[in-house]
Design a protein that fits this description.
Oligomer: single chain
Strand content: under 5%
Number of helices: 9
Radius of gyration: 21 Å
Structural class: mainly alpha
Order of helices and strands: HHHHEEHHHHH
Number of strands: 2
Strand order of the largest sheet: 1-2
Distance between the termini: 66 Å
């Protein structure tokens, strides 16, 4: 069947494969540079101690994120990223709506990708039975849980940067 393809189509396919190989090499080279840069920064190294935060997310928080100390709380930082529900509250009655998606889209996207990676099969084995995450996974759709986890990760990142601390696993902290 391959012999029946016109020469022009074969040339086009070979050209496309060469472009894919070139892009793959460029992505690999940039990933290595980014990893090396993340190792030189103390804040990026500290942020990578959190599960779901890799070199790209850590560098993005450091590069694109404002000075996190200017935020009053972790919730304000998560709201700046667009990871909190819109509030339609009045008269003392709180009504939470959909996610705003207004905010720093790049860091938000990376946090959601990191949260999804924690919820995938390999990460699921590390989720403690009875934790808030396992309970949420039992009753809510996976994407909603990923956004809730990304929100929590953003709040933890704020605390880690402001307090200048490494990540502390809540499961280990409650066991002590």
């Amino acid at each position: 069947m391959a012999a029946n393809l016109p020469a022009l189509i074969k040339e086009e396919c070979i050209d496309l494969l060469a472009q894919i190989a070139e892009k793959t090499e460029r992505i690999t080279a940039r990933t290595k540079k980014l990893s090396a840069l993340a190792k030189t920064s103390d804040q990026a190294r500290r942020l990578q101690t959190m599960p779901g935060v890799g070199p790209m997310t850590a560098i993005a928080v450091e590069a694109f994120g404002q000075d996190l100390a200017q935020f009053k709380s972790g919730r304000n930082f998560a709201a700046w990223l667009g990871l909190v529900p819109r509030q339609n509250s009045s008269g003392g009655k709180a009504r939470l709506g959909r996610m705003t998606k207004a905010g720093q889209a790049d860091i938000r996207r990376l946090l959601i990708i990191g949260a999804i990676s924690r919820l995938n099969w390999a990460g699921r084995r590390k989720i403690a039975v009875g934790s808030w995450l396992s309970q949420l996974l039992a009753r809510k759709p996976k994407m909603l849980v990923a956004i809730a986890l990304a929100n929590k990760m953003a709040r933890q990142i704020w605390a880690m940067v402001v307090k200048n601390e490494d990540y502390r696993d809540p499961a280990l902290a409650s066991a002590a």
